[in-house]
Amino acid sequence: MYEVLLYDGGVYRINELYELIEDVGGFIIQKTQVQVQITVTLAIPEEEKPAIEAKTVELGGKLISVPLAGTEIAVIAPTLARHHMPHPTCDIAEQLRRAGAITIVMGLARGKGRRTSQISADEIAIIEEYDAAVFVLGNFRDCILEHKTKLFEDLEVPVVVVCGPEIESLPYCEGLICGVGRKIERMRREEEIYKLEEISNRVEEVIRQKRYELDEDPLFVHPAEIKDRIAELDAVQRSLRPAPIVLHLDGLRVKIPYEEWKDQIADVEVYGRRLGDIARISNSRLGNSTIIRIKTRAEVESG
Amino acid sequence: MSKYDESFAYQNFDTILRQIMVELGVSRMVTDFRIVAEPDAPYFLISLRLGKARTSVKVSDMGIVDSSPRGAKITITDENWAPALLTRLWQKYGRDSIEQLTRYELIVIGASDEELMDMELDPGEELRSKVLDAVWRIFPEGFKVRHNLMNDDVMTLIGTEHDMEEEWIRTAEKIHEEMHHSKKEAE
């Protein structure tokens, strides 16, 4: 299984690191160079980590574990209005970003209220595009247990619920963290910081579990292997968005219009095959983006 | 009563209301408050008792009014009232008619000094709008069917999701009445 790490160091002899990553069968997910400093997000087979660690020491850099790198996670609240106190939602999204994930914050159009709270089919479809969803709920046990579970009961992506009161168990979710509730300010106190860490640890476990499940029926190629090839497309190079290609556990989100570019994307060559044959390419619900879901090795070989 | 233990919610609402009141600078003016939430019903009720009776203040209590060739001149002696005074003057005479000579001196063009001396400011209005702001910040957003009870020193608001029941309004009236007689909270 691949492990994602962040190398933080200088540009001196950095090519040796790139060569080593390639030799051990790993990939570079992202490179950010600021003058002579460079940070490299890389994915390597986990058994090869000691070799990379040794190289890092030799080059005088640092290796930081970013367990959520290569994932895109949605943090969802019933509403983002002032009444619902969006502070914990933003803090959780920031915490997950620090662990390496790309996050979005989403408020539901008609999520407010107790019995009137609802989620639309469109919203469900948008959330399904992400690797995991974190739902930030409120204070009342009655409201959460009786009425809020319907918000995520139809979701297929793993769900982690964050709420106020201590609840032993909640159906339809993979993780449950209690003790947050509504807040009028940022989560800055010691116990709140621990709580944020607890949330990101739980999300990591859920993601790890999903990675294991994917490994049982492995993908034809790792999404990072396709990334470089898609990055060569004209539209991607011209894109001004900060992260034009976002990795998912089972594919990628490419932020270029689907209708215009679907054929060029499908024609990208990966190990002698067309990308269109080894992946499902579809329009993203968010607009102006394309979702690529890589087929499993078994699917490709049998098809 | 709810079949679940909602102590976390009560404690949380208590904390956030206190924090919001501190943020808005009204915590000393609210001498007592009660929050009753019944998620089973469902309704949410909040009742607050305001400390200071909302008496009005005259311009002559916060400054010296003289006549001037162009109208009237006010020399402010209590600067705390300056923003409220300016707002009131702007409302009545328009911005063009108010000239601020210095930090403490104002000329009101075309006004007579007697008229200004008798002008009243209502500090309660500002306090009430700030307290209401605090209430709206914690009130559950989906509870849009509301009933308000308000008089000089107590305001009670109850909200629900669908139909408001008579019984809940009676509860609100009872709490509203009790708040009038409740002991002043130790500050």
Layout of helices and strands, plus pairs?
The complex is a heterodimer of chains A (303) and B (187).
Chain A: E1 2-10, H1 14-23, E2 27-34, E3 37-45, H2 49-59, E4 62-65, E5 72-77, H3 87-98, E6 102-107, H4 121-128, E7 132-136, H5 141-148, E8 159-162, E9 175-177, H6 190-216, H7 223-231, H8 234-238, E10 245-247, E11 251-254, H9 258-266, E12 269-270, E13 273-274, H10 275-278, E14 279-283, E15 290-294, H11 297-302
Parallel strand pairs in A: 5-6, 5-7, 7-8, 8-9
Antiparallel strand pairs in A: 1-3, 1-4, 2-3, 10-11, 11-15, 12-13, 14-15
Helix pairs in contact in A: 1-2, 3-6
Chain B: H1 7-24, E1 30-38, E2 43-50, E3 57-58, H2 59-62, E4 63-68, E5 71-76, H3 82-93, E6 98-100, E7 105-109, H4 113-117, E8 120-121, H5 123-138, E9 145-150, E10 154-160, H6 166-181
Antiparallel strand pairs in B: 1-2, 2-10, 3-8, 4-5, 5-7, 6-7, 9-10
Helix pairs in contact in B: 1-5
Report on this model:
The complex is a heterodimer of chains A (303) and B (187). Chain A is of the alpha/beta class. Chain A has 11 helices and 15 strands. Chain A has 3 domains: 2-65, Alpha-Beta Plaits; 72-214, Rossmann fold (3-Layer(aba) Sandwich); 223-302. The radius of gyration of chain A is 20 Å and the shape is globular. Chain B is an alpha+beta fold. Chain B has 6 helices and 10 strands. Chain B has helices at 7-24, 59-62, 82-93, 113-117, 123-138, 166-181, and strands spanning 30-38, 43-50, 57-58, 63-68, 71-76, 98-100, 105-109, 120-121, 145-150, 154-160. In chain B, the strands form 3 sheets. A 4-stranded antiparallel beta sheet of chain B has the order 1-2-10-9, with helices on both faces. In chain B, strands 4-5-7-6 form a 4-stranded antiparallel beta sheet. A two-stranded antiparallel ribbon of chain B has the order 3-8. Chain B is elongated and about 75 Å long. The relative contact order of chain B is 0.19. The chains are: A alpha/beta (303), B alpha+beta (187).
